[in-house]
Design brief:
Layout (H helix, E strand, L loop, with lengths): L9 H9 L16 H9 L3 H18 L6 H12 L11 H4 L11 H14 L6 E2 L8 H13 L3 E2 L5 E4 L2 H9 L1
Antiparallel strand pairs: 1-3, 2-3
Helix pairs in contact: 1-2, 2-3, 2-4, 3-4, 6-8
Length: 177
Amino acid sequence: EDKRLSYLSKMDAVKLIEETVWDKKRNRSRFIGTATDVILDYTSSNPYYIQIFCARLVEYMNTQKAISATEADVYEVAQTFIKGEQSLSIDKFDNLITAGDADIEIFETKDILKTLREISLASKNLDSCSRESIKLGDKEKEDKILLDLKNREVISCPQPGYYKIKVRLFKEWLINN
């Protein structure tokens, strides 16, 4: 059954990341330095993306024969989701693109994707982008799409008139695909 999952609290997200691969022998986390924080940044504490990220990170650690993961390891794994042969396919972001019920979709997927792509490109070197950077050609329609994306927690407004895609993996994927 498809069910919308909300974002986890930071504490619960850290538990999901660290406790799953806890080093019981040494009774410590396998994540060194800020590695956990970088995963939180890429996933925005979304449980779906945390799970797929950590599964691939464990595979990476196994191939490297590593017992711990560093920030550099996390970055390396993140890049595999964004570009290259192992990059995620668009269907892995369906939960962020559509509301989940094709019968009640208000907006065309292409318009939602165009809006999200414009946000990602305009905020490539920044945390967010201004409202003026988003242009579909119909300001009223744009405002409705932005409100829908905000209500579904796909984007946030760090300050009035500015938009940010919450899941960094998705933002970077949109820039590269």
